[in-house]
Design brief:
single chain, mainly alpha, 2 helices, 51% helix, elongated
């Protein structure tokens, strides 16, 4: 149904874009909902979930402190 979601935090990933975070959120919502593309009556809930998970994921990545990593 969907490819594996990749690790997006350093040192596993560098230069992670907003599109990368959104793609991971989309894959997650597809996986848990069982829909690759929702029917019209579910599209709003599906899209809202993707946006909320994108925001939560970005906040998580921004707040992680990676030990041994150089501070930027």
């Amino acid at each position: 149904m969907c490819r594996s979601i990749k690790t997006l935090r350093p040192p596993y990933a560098e230069d992670v874009s907003e599109d990368d975070v959104r793609a991971a959120a989309l894959q997650y919502v597809r996986k848990i909902s069982g829909f690759r593309a929702p029917a019209a009556h579910n599209a709003e809930a599906f899209d809202r979930a993707v946006e909320e998970i994108t925001r939560a994921s970005a906040a998580l990545l921004d707040s992680l402190e990676i030990r041994g990593a150089a501070k930027v």
